[in-house]
UniProtKB/TrEMBL annotation:
Its cofactor is Mg(2+); Mn(2+). The keyword Repeat applies. One of its GO terms (molecular function) is manganese ion binding. The keyword Metal-binding applies. Residues 312-340 are annotated as: Disordered. Its EC number is 3.1.3.16. This is Serine/threonine-protein phosphatase with EF-hands. CDD domains: EFh (cd00051), IQCD (cd23767). It comes from the Eukaryota.
Amino acid sequence: PGLYHSSTKSRDTRTGVLKAVLIIQKWYRGYRARLMARLQYALTVFQSIEYADEQSQMQLSSFFSFMLENYTHICEDDPELVQRLLASQKCIKERQDYVELVGVPDSYSGPRLQFPLTFVDIDCLLEAFMQHQVLHAHYVLEVLFETKKVLKRMANFNHVRTSRYAEITICGDLHGSLDDLFLIFYKNGLPSESNPYIFNGDFVDRGNNSMEVLMILFVSFLVYPNNVHLNRGNHEDFMMNLRYGFTKEILKTKLNSKILEEVYTWLPIGTIIDNEILVIHGGISESTDLNLLHGIERNKMKSVLIPPMEGNRDRPIELKENKTGGPVTTTPEKSKANEPASEHLLKHEWEQVIDILWSDPKGKSGCYPNTCRGGGCYFGPDITSKILSKYQLKMLIRSHECKPEGYEISHDGKVITVFSASNYYEQGSNRGAYLKLCSGMSPRFFRYQATWETTLKPLYQRVNIIEISAIRMLKEKIISRKTDLIHAFQLQDRKSGKLSLGRWAFCMESVLGLNLPWRSLSSFLVNTDKDGNVSYMSSFQDIRIEKPVKEAQSTIIETLYRYRSDLEILFNVIDADHSGLISREEFCATWKLFSSHYSVPIDDSQVDELVKTMDLNKDGSIDFNEFLKAFYVVHKYEIMKSD
């Protein structure tokens, strides 16, 4: 009996321990699931705001078209602005006119490149950038001119071959993240004849080291032009650089940005691997025509924000097919023979390029406008199958979208998205990835995260950091539309100052145009009563826009804050000598045109008064950086609810 009693007690103990383990395990799984849900909400906020900004950027193309027709009538004092803004840049032919004017002083201690370049120069550059040294403008110019010369000899699409024993590595967006590029080379090896790479666009913008990333890629390309393939992304565009940071980086180096603009236009727009895998930056549409894309003069695509001129009418294009039914590879030089002397793509050509640079895949069938980004389209699995079948291809590899794990497989395995910039939105927000391909084998994926700061922290701390940053950005979007939101709230209100959660969420989505899980986010944004009703004015608590003029109307402040990025782009275009100054009259005239196009009801005299206030030294010129700083958002404090 004693032995039986002992055995029973032992079983009971084991059963109790097992139950406790299961309870703890269940709790932890629930806890982790809640954390991951919060992380997903934060990433959704980041992505929605990112795409809304890109939509604003794309909408500038319609503004520029409007500007062509109206600016000279409104701004008679500066009739040359339209030409400065929209006319194609003159070709920079004389290399020595630029390079020789920028001498390298004896005191320069940074990396020195030897032309023609060799693998030694790649090592030299990598070592220097690891030591935070800066490449002198003289060498930057040399690299840019040499890159342009080699790119001009290339076709619109690179054609590469692999075998079972020869893999190729494909990297997605880097966005100026030098640490990620270093990590890729550390894990995967430097580019070489036996270790080829495809870099699938968006080398620059957003990150802090766009110039370093660009120089490493261009130097690697010049050393191994047959083994390093560079596809153009939607950020290889000088107008995009004006908004997303690279232009400021360029100006610090005293470079002539027009040289880089030309290099962008000569980048190939895609790569085809083994005649069966298409690698492009964005995606496709139901009208994607690879035959046409092989034959266009890609260097005429100055920017997606500069639409074809009205008189640049479409004409029929005749392209032959090769014996396999695939597209003919036509170099730009060969395609010029019978074309009219135009410096812009035709409208349907321009639209084709926008589609492959800006489009995104979706699970829904069909092809419909990409309303989030404002450019390109959403394409479903049926469109993927149709286009791949038409051109006898098996797979589409693209980038363009940040993914939590660095890559994503969709459309029944026919579409792969690869994104190589880790920590894209915030430290710890996402992994980066690259993939390796060889003939007849499935892709192999490699993930990483170029940070030690956040990986050492517990998961809940990492999620809190990302969540705080996302909510902060969202609050700034909310405060920039305060007047419009209050009007929308009041239309739904019965003078109680409160709305149901559903009505509040409806107002937020309709005014801000952000498709977000507003109900789930409400706990971070507003106060609710015991019945679940929202005190809608709490949407603006603890945050405000600093006013440069006390008497200024809230509508003016919010509107100028909302459009500050667009106005900064126009400012930089108007400021042709990059002095950082434009006249008060120029800014006011530009705002008048801008408000006319966007139907923004603001009294021009009040804007003029604001601009006068910013002209502190009364010299008639404006430093736009000071102007922007005047409209900054003040957060009194951050309240984040713990799990």
